[in-house]
Amino acid sequence: MPTPTNVVLIGMPGSGKSTVGVLLAKHLSLGFLDTDLLIQQANGKSLQAIVDGEGQGALLRAEEAAVLSVEAERCVIATGGSVVYSAVGMAHLKALGTLVYLATDLATLETRVGDYTMRGLAKRPDQTLADLFAERAALYDRYADVTVQTTGLTHDAVCKEVEAALAAR
Ligand SMILES: Nc1ncnc2c1ncn2[C@@H]1O[C@H](COP(=O)(O)OP(=O)(O)O)[C@@H](O)[C@H]1O
Ligand SMILES: O=C(O)C1=C[C@@H](OP(=O)(O)O)[C@@H](O)[C@H](O)C1
Ligand SMILES: [Mg+2]
C-alpha cells in the first residue's frame, strides 16, 4: 500500500461531498473520484434503480464493492452518505487517505436535497432524512480525521475550510 495521499469526503447526502469534492481537487491539483459513479458504472444502472429493484441492502453491498475496488493516489474521493455502514469499506478508505467529514445541520440538508425519495438513498421506505441524520451522526464522528462545518458556507468557502484544516494537520 503506497503512502496515503488521498482526501476522502464523508457526510450526509447534501453535505457537498460531490460538488465541493470537484472544487477541492482543482484547488489541490488532485484527481477526483465519486464512488456513487463507480457503483453506477459497475452495475449499469442508477442508484435509485438498484434500491427499487433489489432493495437498500443491494445498494449497500454494491457500495462496499465499489469502495473496496478503489486504488487511488492523489485524489479527492467523494463517497456516498451510506458508506459509514461498511466497516471494511471504511478501513479501506482510512488506509487510502485522510477522512474529512463535511458536517451540515439537518435543516440545511433538507433545503439542499429537497425531494430525497428519488435520490437512491440507502434507507427503509419509512425512514426520513431526519432518521438517517440521527442514525449516522455518531458514525461520521467516529470515522472522521477532520471535521469541517458547512452550514451557512458557500461551496467555495467549504473548500477553503477543508484546505485550511488539511494544512493544519
Ligand atoms: N456549501 C453549499 N452551499 C450551497 N449548496 C450546496 C453546498 N454544498 C452542496 N450544495 C448543494 O447541495 C446539493 C447536494 O450536493 P452534493 O455535492 O451532491 O452533496 P453530496 O454528494 O454530499 O450528497 C447540490 O445541489 C449542491 O449544489
Ligand atoms: O446516504 C445515502 O444513503 C446515499 C447517498 C448517495 O450519495 P450522496 O451522499 O452523494 O448523496 C448514494 O451513495 C446512495 O444513493 C446512498
Ligand atoms: Mg454525492
| CATH class value | Alpha Beta
State the major sheet.
5 strands, parallel
What is the name of the CATH topology? Rossmann fold
Question: Which ligands does the model contain, each kind named once?
Answer: adenosine-5'-diphosphate, shikimate-3-phosphate, magnesium ion
**SS-based class:** alpha/beta
- Count of extended strands: 5
State the CATH architecture.
3-Layer(aba) Sandwich
CATH superfamily: P-loop containing nucleotide triphosphate hydrolases
Q: Main sheet: which strands, in order across?
A: 2-3-1-4-5
Query: How many domains, as an integer?
Result: 1
Q: Could you tell me how far the N terminus lies from the C terminus, measured between alpha carbons in angstroms?
A: 21 Å
Give the helices and strands as they follow along the chain. EHEHHHEHEHHEH
Give the DSSP E fraction (strand runs of 2 or more residues).
Answer: 5-15%
Q: Rough shape?
A: globular
Question: Care to give the gist of this entry?
Answer:
The protein has eight helices and five strands. The protein has helices spanning 17-28, 35-43, 47-54, 56-68, 87-96, 106-113, 129-143, 155-167; strands spanning 6-10, 31-34, 75-78, 97-103, 146-149.
Walk me through this protein's architecture.
This protein is an alpha/beta fold. The protein has one domain (6-167): Rossmann fold, CATH 3.40.50. The protein is 52% helix and 14% strand. The longest helix is centred in the C-terminal third of the chain and has 15 residues, at 129-143. It starts with 5 loop residues before the first strand and ends with a helix. The model has no long low-confidence stretch (mean pLDDT 95). The site of adenosine-5'-diphosphate has 16 residues, from helix 1 and helix 8. Catalyzes the specific phosphorylation of the 3-hydroxyl group of shikimic acid using ATP as a cosubstrate. Its main location: cytoplasm. It is found in: Cytoplasm.
